[in-house]
Amino acid sequence: MRIAVAGGTGMAGRHTVAAARAVGHDVVSLSRAEGVDVVAGTGLDAALAGVDVVVDVLNGPTMSRAKATSFFVAAAGNLQAAGQRTGVTRVVVLSIVGIDRVPGYPYYAAKLAHEEAACAGPLPVAVVRTTQFHEFAGQIIDRMAVGPLALVPTMRIQPVAARTVGERLVEVATVPGPPDRTELAGPEEILLVELARRTVQARGRRQWVVPVRLPGSVGSAFRTGTLLPGPDAVLAGPSPAEWLASSDVH
After folding, report:
1. DSSP-derived secondary structure letter, 147
2. Which overall architecture, per CATH, does domain 2-249 show?
3. Which of 60, 230, 89, 237 lies closest to 173 in space, CA to CA?
C-alpha cells in the first residue's frame, strides 16, 4: 500500500513513516522539506499520485485560535480535494482526546475545526484521538524553563508514546473499515508534574519542576481529568516507567 503522511517530519509523523515502512508500505512524506505545501496546496497532486491513504498528523504553527484554525481548515480541505482528484480512498486524521470537553481553549477549538473540515470532504475519514504523548513532558520542560526552574501545569494525563501513536495510525490506515472516531491512550494515568520530574531525572539534568495551577475552566478541566480517555479507548504501552527507561526519553 502507498501511504502519504502529511506532517511526516514532525514527532508523530516521523514515527508514522517509520511504522509504515517497517511493515513494508510505500510511504510519501508531505512536508515543505519534501517540496509540498499542504496549506497552499502546492505539489499535492503530484505527491499523491498512486497514494491509497493519507494520514494527516499536521501540527498547528501557533496556539492562536484564528491562525491555527485557518491552517487546519485549509490543509484538510486541500488534502480532501487533491485526494479525490488523485484516487485516494480515505483519510486518517490525528486529533486529541477531550478537545470537545474543554471550551475556551483556543488550540482545541482549532483541532475541532480540523476534524470537522476533514469530515466535510468527499473522502471517508477516520479520526484517531490520542492522549498527550509521553514526550509532552519533555516539551513542556524545554519550553517553560526559567533558569533552573521548569514551570509545569497541574494536569492529569494518561500518556501514550509517539511511537505507539504512529503504529496505531498505520493500523487504522491499512485495515478497511467504516469512517469512525476512536481513542488511543497509554495504560497508566499519571500527573504531568510527576512525569516531568521523572523525565528530568532520566535526562540527568539539574532542574526543578514547579507545579502551576492554571486558572479558570481550562485549568479546572486539566486538573480534574477531562483529558483522560473514555472507557472504549484502545490502551497500548509503554507505561511511563517503561518509556522513561527507553532511549526515546533523550
Report:
1. T
2. 3-Layer(aba) Sandwich (3.40)
3. 89
Q: List, for residues 36-89, the tens digit of each pLDDT value.
A: 999 999 999 999 999 999 999 999 888 889 999 999 999 999 999 999 999 999
Give the strand pairing for 145-146 and 149-153.
Answer: antiparallel
- Which of 110, 227, 232 shows the shortest CA–CA distance to 159? 227
Average pLDDT on 140-144 reads: 91
Nearest C-alpha neighbor of 89 from the set 121, 59, 114, 43: 121
Give the H or E element holding residue 35: none
Q: What is the bridge-based pairing of β-strands 2-6 and 53-56?
A: parallel
CA 169 to chain centre: 10
* Distance of alpha carbon 120 from the chain centroid: 20
Q: Which residues contact 78 (CB under 8 A, 6 or more apart)?
A: 38, 39, 40, 41, 44
Of the candidates 59, 234, 223, which has an alpha carbon nearest to the alpha carbon of residue 130? Answer: 234
Nearest-5° Cα angle at 136, 189 to 165? 75
Cβ contact 80:91 at 8 Å: yes
Of 108, 14, 33, which Cα lies nearest the Cα of 65?
108
Instruction: Report the predicted TM-score, pTM, of the whole model to 2 decimal places.
Output: 0.95
